[in-house]
Design brief:
- With 239 residues, this protein is of the alpha/beta class.
- It folds into 2 domains: 147 residues, 3-Layer(aba) Sandwich (Rossmann fold), CATH 3.40.50.1000; 75 residues, Orthogonal Bundle (DNA polymerase, domain 1).
- The strands form 2 sheets. The protein has a 6-stranded parallel sheet with strand order 5-4-1-6-7-8, sandwiched between helices.
- α5 runs parallel beside α9.
- It starts with 19 loop residues before the first strand and ends with a helix.
């Protein structure tokens, strides 16, 4: 069982029941493992480079935010795959890179715990939304293909403000859309950088410790560390 107690000494008492729960999408809800074969094939059979591609994509999204020259997440994904290929001396065309990414990322399946956990949170009466670096059309298609649409009250994409998470402005923007104070919202993600950004913006945070995912040691600790969405739902029952 994962440690579920608040871990930030400055946080004080147990956080209150949130008015809204905000979920990240890729890796938090949707399993990237199915992309291993398509990305691996594009990279000459190097399936082990999938995590490097995804982390490179996230890195380059921050470059986009810092420089102010916006490109959507799909464009950044293709460019990042081309970078990984070049750095590993793998020949790869832009068209092949796009083919390897686009259809696969739109048809990701949810982790096994996601639907049961979301069902429980729905039954408990929580307002549930998503906040993603993916495009509006992209996450709409992802949710439709994964059968997640009906679990959510709303979907939010940084495409509308062109500022990628974990820039604090992304979290501040979604709070404005929701009409809640930071402490009234719980951000849930399987990325240390995402919970770090949300925590710094004043939100409650929950880190889902998916295999291969770790917290950033220099960031403020999240309020909850859980193994999956179902475990989070069980914790919320006590709120």
């Amino acid at each position: 069982m994962a440690d579920t107690a608040p871990q930030d000494a400055s946080a004080g008492a147990e956080p209150p029941r949130p008015k809204v729960i905000i979920f990240d999408v890729n890796e938090t809800l949707l399993d990237l493992e199915s992309m291993r074969s398509s990305v691996g094939e594009a990279l000459g059979g190097r399936e082990e480079l999938l995590p490097l591609w995804f982390s490179t994509m996230l890195h380059n999204s921050l470059v986009t935010t810092v420089t102010g020259e916006y490109h959507d997440f799909g464009q950044i994904g293709v460019a990042s795959l081309l970078m990984v290929a070049e750095n590993n001396d793998i020949p790869l065309s832009e068209e092949k890179a796009k083919t390897a990414i686009v259809s696969s990322i739109l048809s990701l399946t949810p982790h096994p715990d996601v639907k049961p956990g979301l069902t429980s949170l729905n039954e408990q009466g929580f307002k549930i939304v998503s906040l993603t670096n993916s495009s509006n059309d992209g996450v709409k298609t992802q949710f439709e293909n994964a059968g997640l649409t009906n679990f959510f009250d709303a979907r939010y994409s940084i495409e509308d403000i062109k500022i990628y998470k974990p820039d604090l402005r992304a979290y501040e923007w979604v709070l404005e859309q929701l009409g809640v104070q930071p402490e009234e919202a719980l951000m849930v993600a399987a990325h240390g950088w995402d919970v770090a950004g949300a925590k710094e913006a004043g939100l409650q945070t929950a880190f889902i410790a998916r295999p291969g995912k770790a917290l950033y040691p220099l960031a403020k600790k999240p309020d909850y560390v859980v193994e999956n969405v179902s475990e989070l739902a069980e914790i919320m029952k006590a709120k």
